[in-house]
Amino acid sequence: MADLARWRDLSRLARGYRRSILGAAALSLLGSLLALTQPLLARVAVDGAAAGSLPWPVIGALTGLFAAQASALALARYLQAQTGETMTRDLRRTVAGHLLRVRLSVLDDGRIGDLIARACGDTAVVKTLIAQSLGTGLAGVVGLAAAIGLLAWLDPWLLAAVVVLFGGSFGALLAVVRRVRLASRTASAAEGALVADLERVLGGIRLVRACRTEGLEAERLDTSAGRVYLANLRMAGMVALSGPANDLAVSGAFLTVLLTGASRVASGAMTLGELVAFTLAMTYLAAPVYEIFQAVGAVQQGSGALHRINEVLALPVERDRTVAVATVRGAARRVAPVLEFRDVWFGYRPGRPVLRGIGFTVPSRGQVALVGPSGAGKSTIFALAERFYDPDRGSVLLHGRDARFLPYARYRASIGLVEQDSPLLAGTLRDNLLYGAGPVTSRELRRVLAMTGLLPVVAGLPSGLDTPVGEHGRHLSGGQRQRVAIARCLLARPDLILLDEPTAHLDPDSENVLAATLHEISAVCALMIIAHRFSTVRSAERVLVVDGGLVTGSGTHDELLRSSPYYRRLAAPLLRYG
């Protein structure tokens, strides 16, 4: 059943490339058939030479056959390689596209480096599987049948000896290749773990340097590399066993044919030309046998990588619900709050809720601040507001409509997110500003740069907006990255912007500039801010106190100072810091 499942997966993968695969198989088979006609001409040439007459037309035909065979096989190999590369490109495109839509709850539990290894390394192994199994394997089976038929026609007694020797080799090789699949899967998993470990270290290289743990991390990477080494070495050892078995079978068959054939020539049972023809045909028997073993080995070796790729493609993705909903327009859109949480319960693990029946509304204009201790659920509220997760119970509404029945793209076009770390992508400053923004005029871009205080930053960069920002935006300061993230949100023109402590990386002067910018922005769209600084809290029209996954207080800063003892305790350090 497992073998049937592997071949079924392989057949499904090859769907859409059958024409190219069959074309390569046909060319390979043509090369085999051209090769099998050569012993027949060689018999005529040898017998003619032995009789004292060199048949030049036959020799010319042999030369033409050699050239045609070489051309057919070369074209077959190129077509196989092209098919493998095309399939690898398409498979990587499919895996990458799937990973970009996988639910965040699944990605949170996985190792990104291992997923990268599956999308890159394992797909390359599948390329080898396709190039060496379908086309060559099919041609090898047909070529083997044709070669056996020719040998049986030339001399059935010599063929019987060859079959005995090759049969023993075939049994030994089958015993080896069955073990290659498990070894291949182990090696692929070890390589994925190594890539994941390396991605983890390089992603936190500043922490590694600051904590002086280069030696410790090098030991961990060395251990991972050692596992890859041992796994690949075990697989190489198994593959290496097939070589001597095949070589012994070929050498034994040649020796048997030469000794037995010489005796039969001496007795007059066969001519010297027939012995040469049989020997030459037997050399062509080795090629299809090798192709078949190579195909079986490739399937066994590649099935581990294909299994890991199928595991990725089986990961659940975000899917829009096919529910028809009316578009909210005009006055109805303006009356409904831009965002509403209704009795929302949510936990990252079953039975451990982070939000416990939380409810609040965000009006279409103005600033709403979220305050509360660490672990209270503020960041989780943002994650649900952006639909990175769906509530376990209750509902999140956008403009009065249940978010679960809105397409993800349409929903997220209405809600922008500025994270505290403000990650940027490798590329230019312009690339990051316009990322996901759609068409933007130069005038609008300049207006947003002025609003966010980025004009002096752009003026100071060597290539202005076309200056590369480095990996994760490391050529910019934390405050500059924060302002770039805010500008990117503004250029996308959302109805609501979520800001996770936007003043975290700013000096007092920049903070004052940002406060004025946020006040200006709040006149045209809604802002919801996770706040820890007094200045941010005080400028908000409404403050929500979040504690233990509940909204325990709601009102203006001054109202909460009067009505909420908890808020007064919470605000005391904010007042001192602000």
Regarding quaternary structure, how should these chains be classified? single chain
Strand share of the residues? 5-15%
Q: Helix and strand string, N-terminal first? A: HHHHHHHHHHEEEHEEHEHHHHEHEHEEHH
**Number of helices in the DSSP assignment:** 20
How are the strands of the largest sheet arranged?
6-7-8-3-9-10
User: What Rg is obtained from the alpha carbons, in whole angstroms?
Assistant: 35 Å
Largest sheet: 6 strands, mixed
Summarize model confidence as the mean pLDDT. 79
Gross morphology: elongated
Quickly give the CATH architecture of the domain at 87-313: Up-down Bundle
Which consecutive residue ranges, at least 5 long each, have pLDDT under 50? 328-333
Number of strands: 10
Within CATH, the superfamily of the domain at 87-313 carries the name ABC transporter type 1, transmembrane domain
Provide an overview of this structure.
A hairpin with a 2-residue loop joins strand 4 and strand 5. It contains 20 helices and ten strands. Helices cover 66% and strands 10% of the residues. Among the domains are: 87-313, ABC transporter transmembrane region fold, CATH 1.20.1560; 415-493, Rossmann fold (3-Layer(aba) Sandwich), CATH 3.40.50.300. It has helices at residues 2-14, 18-50, 56-99, 104-109, 112-154, 156-203, 205-210, 214-267, 272-313, 330-335, 378-385, 408-413, 429-433, 442-451, 455-460, 478-491, 508-521, 534-538, 557-563, 565-577; strands spanning 339-346, 355-362, 366-371, 393-398, 401-402, 415-418, 496-500, 526-530, 542-547, 550-555. The chain crosses the membrane at residues 58-79, 134-153, 159-177. Residues 339-573 form the ABC transporter domain. Keywords: ATP-binding, Cell membrane, Membrane, Nucleotide-binding, Transmembrane, Transmembrane helix, Transport.
